Amino acid sequence: MATEDIEERLAGVPVYALSNSNEEFVLISGVNSGKSLGLFCFNKDDADTLLEQMKTMDPGMRSSSKVVAVALNKVFQLKLDGVAFRFIPDSSQVKNAIKVNQNAGLSDQGFSGVPVFQSRSLVLKSDNKRYCPIFFRKEDLENSLRRASVQQKQLNPAFRQGDIQVSVLEEIIKTMKESSTSKWDDVVFIPPGFDVSTNLPQQKKLTANG
């Protein structure tokens, strides 16, 4: 998939970073490696906590630094020599991901990367095409499943054990970039806090598959 197509799908998803008075990202430098690291949080509260920690270590940051929201696609456009970027996932969603994997009989040793959630029971249809919505919060997926069930006046099988699946955002994007055809070609990323049954444009129809 073309990089532009991937970035377009990520455009509506916010992440949070630290910025100085010059509107530049605050980078963390490794003492031993000499490399700089830019951190992007998926939860604003985590970014606020990080800022307070940084202010404690560097008093010069106290008056000039702040937390800023950045569209996720802009992060992937950043290419700075000697600078690596790392995502800090929402800890509550990491716990949700571990629980989903446990329910599916998978490893419970932890979760590496940013978790995203999907369900085989939820499909978006637009112009005779089918799309798979990918959520950054398990709660948003569950709300959308409930609303889809009510709208169709049927018992939605979405809450059967194992019906909700969890994947790693970084791995999805890597696969989309490297493969000419991918099982992720039809994904639509849903920003945190969105219920697809009420926030999507009218031309897209939400359905719950039985």
Structural class category:
alpha+beta
- For the record, the count of structural domains works out to 2
Q: Oligomeric form of this entry?
A: single chain
CATH architecture call of the largest domain = 3-Layer(aba) Sandwich
Report the C-alpha radius of gyration, rounded: 19 Å
The counted number of beta strands is: 11
The portion of residues forming beta strands comes to 25-35%
CATH class of the largest domain: Alpha Beta
- Overall mean pLDDT: 80
Runs in which pLDDT lies below 50 for 5 or more consecutive residues are: 198-206
Q: What sort of overall outline do the alpha carbons produce when their principal axes are compared?
A: globular
Distance between the termini: 30 Å
Taking strands numbered 1, 2, ... along the chain, how are they ordered across the largest sheet? 10-8-7-11
For the largest beta-sheet, the strand count, sense and barrel status come to:
4 strands, mixed
**Remind me, CATH topology of the largest domain?**
Trna Endonuclease, Chain: A, domain 1
The number of distinct helices, counting runs of at least 4 residues, comes to 7
Organism: Thalictrum thalictroides (Rue-anemone)
Protein name: Tic 22-like protein
Main location: plastid
GO cellular component, one term: chloroplast
